[in-house]
C-alpha cells in the first residue's frame, strides 16, 4: 500500500512540475519547476529499484544541466526587482512545496525500505544480495572494461581536438611579440649612442 501511495504521489508531481515548467511565464521559475520534476522522477526510479538512474538524475541533470540552465537564464535581461517584490507573495507556495518535498523524502525512504516495486520478471541474470549499482559496476569494470575505457579515450580525444580547433593565435597589426627574443637581447644591442653635431639634430 505504501508503494502505491508513493508511486502516485511522485508521478502526479512529475506531471504537475512538467506542466508548470511549460506554463510558467518566468524563465527562472520554469527552471526551478524543472528541477522539482527531476527530483520526483528520481523518486520514481528509487521505487522501482533503479538507484543508479536516480543518482544520475540528481547528480547530472539537477546538479549540472539544470544549474547550467539557471545560470544562462539569469544572464538574460530579467527584472530582478520584480522577482524580489513577488518573493513575499510566493513565500507560502514555497513553504508548501518544501513541506511536500520533505513528505516525499520520508515516504520514499519508507517505501524503499519496504522493498522495490516488482514490474515483471527480469530477462537477464539477477544476482541475489547485490544492488543494481554493484551489478552495473561489475559489468562496466569487468566484462565491458575495454569498451568503457575506449569510450573514455574517444571522448578525451574529442575534447582535445575541440580545444585545438578553437585555439587560434591572434596576431595584432603591430606584429607578434617574441618574449624569448626580447629576453635574449643584450644592452649593447638594445641601445645605441648618438653624438649629434650641434644644430643638426638626430636621424632616427
Verbal overview:
By secondary structure, the protein is mostly helical. Among the domains are: 76 residues, NADH-ubiquinone/plastoquinone oxidoreductase chain 6, subunit NuoJ (Four Helix Bundle (Hemerythrin (Met), subunit A), Up-down Bundle); 28 residues; 32 residues. Helices cover 71% and strands 0% of the residues. The longest helix is centred in the middle third of the chain and has 28 residues. The N and C termini lie far apart (95 Å).
Question: What is this structure, in a nutshell?
Answer:
By secondary structure, this protein is mainly alpha-helical.
Task: For the structure shown, list the relevant keywords.
204 residues, mainly alpha, Four Helix Bundle (Hemerythrin (Met), subunit A), 71% helix, 0% strand
Do you know the CATH architecture of the domain at 1-76?
A: Up-down Bundle
Largest sheet: none
Output the helix-strand order.
HHHHHHHHH
What is the fold named in CATH at topology level of the domain at 1-76? Answer: Four Helix Bundle (Hemerythrin (Met), subunit A)
Number of strands: 0
Share of residues in strands: under 5%
CATH superfamily of the domain at 1-76: NADH-ubiquinone/plastoquinone oxidoreductase chain 6, subunit NuoJ
- Rg: 31 Å
Category by helix and strand content:
mainly alpha
Mean pLDDT: 76
Helix content: over 70%
Provide a count of the helices. 9
Q: State the shape.
A: elongated
- Which ranges are low-confidence, i.e. pLDDT below 50, for 5 or more consecutive residues? none
Distance between the termini: 95 Å
Name of the level-1 CATH class of the domain at 1-76: Mainly Alpha
Pfam families: Oxidored_q3
Membrane topology: Multi-pass membrane protein
Enzyme class: translocase
Family: Belongs to the complex I subunit 6 family.
